[in-house]
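Late entry, written up from scratch paper. The run itself happened at the end of the previous shift, but nothing got recorded in the book at the time, so transcribing now.
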Amino acid sequence: MKQPPIILLTGASGAGKSTVLDTLLKEKKLPIVRFVTNTTRAKRSGEAHGKDYWFLDKKEFQAQIKKDAFYEWAHVYDNYYGSAKTEMDRLLKGKKAVVMILDVQGTRTIKRHHPEAIAVFIDAPTASLRHRLKERGTDITDLKRRLAEIAKEKLYKTKADLVIVNKDGDLKHTVSQVKKLIRQAISDS
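Output as recorded:
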């Protein structure tokens, strides 16, 4: 049996990657599973351990790095993010498409290991990204860092398999485009 498709949702901070995936996961008939990554960043309001991320402290995370436990990991915005090898192996044995939310650095790493993975760059106008980051309560230091990275992150668009612009007020269209891609990837596998 072929492994299920891997869909990588990437893009700049505030582009809507998590919102798109959360909306897709509400559709019970869509055969997808969320790959839950590990992070050392603090939980945001409404996030849950094991659902949104596996929240680890820096010592735990660094110990996992030394054990070579991560499929890929990165140090971004003063926090660590990583994908556990055991989680990837477990999900790839299933029948559902594996959907990952990654920054562009993580996407590059996964694409090196899995060139068949489909990288979907979720984009948005820079002004919208700035507004969304402020709305989710990003502290001022983190906000400045994330805004400084937007232009660099947007450079990855040319390497993505698909670019979808998530305009303000048009989430339904964005979700529809990602859903279409997922259904096609599943039928091709």
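The first strand starts at residue 6 and ends at 10.
(Scratch paper discarded after transcription.)
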